[in-house]
Amino acid sequence: MGLVEIRWHGRGGQGVVTSAEMLVSAAIYEGKYAIAIPFFGAERRGAPVVAYNRISDTPIRTRCPILNPDYVVLLDERLGRMIDVVRGLKSDGVLVVNSKSVPEWVDRKDIRIATVDATSISMSLGLELAGIVIVNMPMLGALIKVSNIVSLNSLTKAIKAKWKGERMKQNLEAVTRAYNETVIW
Amino acid sequence: MPVMPLSGNHAAAYAAKLSRVEVVAAYPITPQTQIVEKLAEFIEKGELKAKFIRVESEHSAMAACIGAAAVGARAFTATSSQGLLYMSEMLWWAAGARLPIVMGIVTRALAPPWSIWSDHIDVLSQRDTGWIIAFAENAQEVLDLIIQGFKISENDRVLLPLIVAWDAFDVSHTIEPVDVPNQNVVDEFLPKRRKYRHTLDVENPFSYGNLAYPKDYMEFRYSIYDSMLRAKDVIEQCAAEYDRLTGRYSGGLIENYLCDDADIVAIAMGSISGDLKVVVDKLRKQGVKVGFCRIRYFRPFPSEALAKCIEDAKTILVFDRDISFGSEGALCLEVRATVNREGLDKRVYGIIYGIGGREVRQKDLENIIVKAYKEELNHPRKLLWLNLKHV
Amino acid sequence: MKEVLMPIAYPTKGSVGNTGLWRTLKPVINYEKCTKCFICWMYCPEAAILAEDKPVILYDFCKGCGICANECPVKAINMIKEV
Predict the structure, then answer these.
(1) What number is the ipTM of this complex?
(2) A168/C contact by beta carbon, under 8 A
(3) B79, B100, B129, C47: which sits with the fewest CB atoms below 10 Å from its CB?
């Protein structure tokens, strides 16, 4: 598979860092090499946050920020109006966005777009904390659907290792539903 | 100008008084205590119009000085050893906030085992804080360097806090004649502290030390580095002006004592310097071409001036009253870096002396210099520990 | 560098942009219930409420923390889902 680079955009509290971490766990189950790089600033709920993933068949030494990702995952569609979220996204790269349809602000013709209504999925499952809908699990499901960087089976294992009981069931359900509902435009 | 019998510590108190400090905040620790006791006395008697802030620790003492300096007051404190380490976090704050503050440090060893005697490691542990660091040789210089210190620290091209350090007991408690300048002379040299763009003002509110992201932070550190380099000129200018007003040249980055034609140059800081100069005089009479270079300012480190001083020497002996475990003395490392940076070809020997107040005699210093002269010293790789037992 | 770089910052309106976009829940004042006590104005950590003849929320900068709604003694502020 070579090296795959992913950039996550979201808001503090939506679970961006956890998504990046779960992707690493799932990659380890497949014998792959992976790193998750959260960007830490003045952490605060609601503020725009960024995290990065690198996944590869060979050991990863690079730690610098990702400038030309293969995938951009956007947890809050409204951020696209404030920030140039597809900046540097490779030609033919994929923007995976939490939205019912292709957002009107996307102005690049050379990229592909995948959408999933992650907010509805998480809300229907009760994945909310302190007024913020946690959409990281459905977005993970959507990402692996369009990218195949890890299998749904490996991600399931990673989720089972991290959570127990009700939260584990909610997260598994969120990932699986998003995996099935993701639309590639 | 009256000559008074003063200890190094009392000379420091007189210097602060003559500098018309407005805030003194300090916590007692041996061997520094006399300084602030004397200042408290001056304030009590009405001889010094200043606010004495009694604090619960050295950390708070520096915090109080930072607050005072931020609103435009001239602030002074003093400490030693453990107290300095406890204060350390605030030292970074004072320098980072670009606040002019002067602090006296009576150098003292660190525990354990407990020791109250001299050792330069307390000051040198603060090497990278962004404070200007000067070492005084005697009580006279303690007074002169503190008065000059305020002028250097308050220079708007510098704006960095400044430490004047002197050895415990050898200087701090030793009483010697000190020429105390008249107030009007000091007033002419050191005018009232001015307000800067970053002096707090209720009419024009702003805040200090906000979060700086990676895209901004580095320039603030560069600015301190840059100001440190500029301080070299300011230090020399202040020494010259002080000389003009008092008739005493008592400052500047280094002291060149008979180095110009020397084959061997000894380098040291602080109170051992007097003894080294006596030894140099004695050996010169015997035909040994030896000189002594005193590092008066350790930060900014006077590389250029030092390089000139040792240009023609073949052998350099660096006397350190400190040890960086796993390496060698801090001063020796600086000298080696200077020799390398300036492309000089020298043999540099590191000598560790006087740790925790260990006695050093002129005979010991003489023996080492003579050995170096006869090329009988071991390879420079072997660090010499002077008067060490059980080896 | 000619001048010393000082680590000071002056208060600036919206120095990090329209932080209103960080909001998930939006506080809305019910002026029929509001007694104009201005407790909300006092508690707002972002100075995003103006004290005019009545408290006025600046939605460009309100991050939706909900402190105003929590502190309002007459429960005149409701947190409404925006997305």
Answers:
(1) 0.85
(2) no
(3) C47
